[in-house]
Amino acid sequence: MIKVGDTLPAVTLTEYSEVEGNGCSIGPNPVEVASAAAGKTVAVFAVPGAFTPTCSAKHVPGYLENAEALKAAGVDEIWCLSVNDAFVMGAWARDQKAAGKIRFLADGSAEFAKATGLTLDLTGRGMGVRSNRYSMLVKDGKVATLNVEGPGKFEVSDGATMLAQAK
Q: What are the φ and ψ backbone dihedral angles of 22, each rounded to 5 degrees?
């Protein structure tokens, strides 16, 4: 499992873009993790699935509520990762009204989750291999803090905890 001091895995995620610009076309666009995190402080949080109850009602709203304070504390970007496709992540970002505040990045084949060792096997529930629920503060591509939730828990990966760690 990834740990504090480790470098983020060099995988490519996808992000749905609503508008064309800055070299991005409308629709799914590749996001190379290493280059996207280089020289930045990024608050990353991962969830088992888009549109799921805890993720939609608590996890994302907590980061939205703390977005301005996180930026004031030196966080350049907030990333939400989930093992879903870019179309689902784009729809979820619209539903959560997160434009300009949180980047919703799709880990469609669970490559990032597998590379970090933070997978959650929900095959028995018909959801396959997913990402565990966690958060991490990343500075210039290296993990500065890591908060991994226990099974079925939502206690340490919330926006308020991330804000306290970013200060």
A: 50, 40
